[in-house]
Amino acid sequence: MNTITEYLYGAYGSNLNKDQMEFRCKNATPVESYTLKGHALKFRGVADVEVSTDGSSVPLGLWKITKDCEKSLDRYEGYPNLYVKKFIETEHGLVMIYIMRNQDRISPPSNCYLDGIATGYYDFSLDNRKLKDAVTDSYLNQQ
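RE: above sequence
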């Protein structure tokens, strides 16, 4: 039986936004920022990360979440149909992230969605260059 009641979740999209996470997961607690190496931020209409071998990295906001928070996030993220879960070993322990099941297309995010993510970057004091680069890439390489 699993007795873990809290663990870490790594947000890179709209769940960086503290107001939005408060609405989705009242018991989530922001912990700190983290750099996920070997991955790249992509937009497929919504945010996603993919494995990258070019030295890319993705800024994450780490949240301490409960099982109830995870259930709420599963619903929001469309798990297991739209996103699947990946567990990454970090110096902070295991961190759960969501990765899109289908990574075939690239397309820009809506302005409203992007604004929410930009607020999350501010909330976690993240450098927004990776975000800007991913948005630019989504316009240049949309499929």
